[in-house]
Structures are given as structure tokens and as C-alpha cells.
Amino acid sequence: MTVRSERHSGLGRGLASLIPQRSQQAATTEIPIERIRPNPRQPRQRMDPAELESLAASIREHGVLQPILVTETLDGYQLVAGERRFRASQQAGLERIPAVIRQLADREQLELALVENLQRADLGPMEEANAYRSLVSEFDLTHDQIAQRVGRAKSTITNTLRLLDLDPNVQEALVEGRLSEGHARAIGGLPPEQQARVAATIADQGFSVRQAEELVRRLREPRAPKAAAAPRVLEPDLERVEDDLRRRLGTKVTLARSRKGGRIIIEFYSDEELGQLYDRLIGGPA
């Protein structure tokens, strides 16, 4: 299962509020590409080669339509915002590129790169989380201060940062697109030792976010207390089978032993869930 990351739109504070416009004398200058160093604080770590080549082809045909943002250094310039345009221009063979030059502190460089990528929905959830963590750990910003700077709700910042607490295998599935941010947040409600196995089940079975949330809720439910007169005791191997079936089917499964065998009780809570169970058990539509 490959999913698109769930991104938010409508940033309250855009690049226009962070970068002076032409009326404020933000002049564009053509500068040599070879004198520009990449931004070490660039939050975006993954770029699609096909999309980059498409942009390079457009630049060969029409040039760079929007200038990049750089800050001046002792030996040239350092890129602040416009990573894709910069790389595509290199790929297109350009020698010079239009740029706006500003003197910026490290924190401002990270903020501008982060906001630009957020506005274009270019960042994956883990890239976004790592960028927020840099603002917290390196610059002592609070979640509320970050929210104000990037135009997001404080709760969004907090929830995104929680992705960094997930099991590494879950984070990898999120980066690769096998899980969405909604799936990952649901899995975050489980103990770390359970997360990787549940994530694999959700990805393999193609669960929706709602189904993932329901699975996590059921896994977190305490077992119903056994009646004193007839306690339900399972052998360790059978208990493991019961747990595996519950995770595999995404619903409550109960094994009941008898002298000559036993029963498997599979619960469902809607006609839709019954159809999905049928597909998983039979391998075809009901």
C-alpha cells in the first residue's frame, strides 16, 4: 500500500511576510551557480528525480521564473530557499541564476526553508518533524513560537513532533509512503514494542486510517475480567495465535477450547467490516 501524506494547507504566515518584496527593495541579482553552496539546514531530504528532470527541462525552455533566496558568505553564497530550482538549474546547465540576497541568521535560514517547503507541500511528515525538532533543540523555540512562525496550529506542531517517538520501522514506512501520517499517529498510541508489527499489518492489509485507529483501540482494550467460576485460561501458544489473528484480521478474535477441539469467534461491527473480513479469509469479493 502506497499512500499520500496528509498535509495541511492555508499557512497563516507565508514567504511574503518573511522576505521583503520589491517595494521594500528586495532586488533580484544574477549570481554564478558555482559560487552557491547548498543549505545545510534544508529540511527536505528526498527529491523525485523525474520531477527534478521535468523542472530542469522547463528551465532550459523558459529560464528560472522565480528567484532563489541566498545569504552572502565569505567565499560566495549559501542557499536559503529554492533548493529544487537550484538543483534543476544545475541539471539544466545554467551558469547563473536569479537570486534575492539577504543577510540571515541560522534560525532565520531554517525558518525560511521550512516555510517555503510547507507552502508547496514538499515536505514529508518526518522531514517536517525533524525541522521542528531543530527549531526546538538548537534555537530553544517553544511549540507555540514555531506555530506562529510557520502558520500552523500549536497542536499540529506537537502532533508532528510526536512522530519522532515512533519505532524506527514505523518512521521508515511513513517516509516510504507505505503509511500515512494518520496511520502513524494511530500507531503511536501503542507501546513501542508493538508498533512495528501492527504497522506491517496495517500496510499489508491496506487499512484505512479509521480501521487502523479501531485496530489500535481494540489492541489497547483491557481483557474482560474472567468469571471466578469459569476462568478462561489459554495455553501460551494459543494466546499468541489469538493475538496474531486479531492483528491480522483487524478485529476482536477469541479462541474457545473444548475437550475435542474448540471454536474461533471473529467479531465484526458493520456490513463493511464483514465484507472486508470475507475478502481476507476467502480471497475474493463477497
Explain the overall architecture.
The chain has 286 residues and is α/β, with parallel strands linked by helices. The chain folds into three domains: 15-162, Conserved hypothetical protein from pyrococcus furiosus pfu- 392566-001, ParB domain; 181-222; 240-286, no CATH class. 49% of the residues lie in helices and 13% in strands. The protein is built from 13 helices and seven strands. It has helices at 15-18, 49-62, 83-92, 106-119, 125-137, 143-150, 154-161, 168-176, 181-187, 192-205, 209-220, 236-249, 271-282, and strands at residues 28-32, 36-37, 68-73, 76-81, 96-101, 253-258, 261-266. The strands form two sheets. A five-stranded mixed sheet has the order 1-5-3-4-2. β6 (253-258) and β7 (261-266) form a beta hairpin. α6 (143-150) packs across α7 (154-161) and α8 packs parallel to α10. The radius of gyration is 26 Å and the shape is elongated. The two termini are 22 Å apart. The model is unreliable at 8-25 (pLDDT under 50).
Which descriptors apply to this entry?
five-stranded mixed beta sheet, 7 strands, 13 helices, elongated, two-stranded antiparallel ribbon, 3 domains, Conserved hypothetical protein from pyrococcus furiosus pfu- 392566-001, ParB domain, 286 residues, alpha/beta
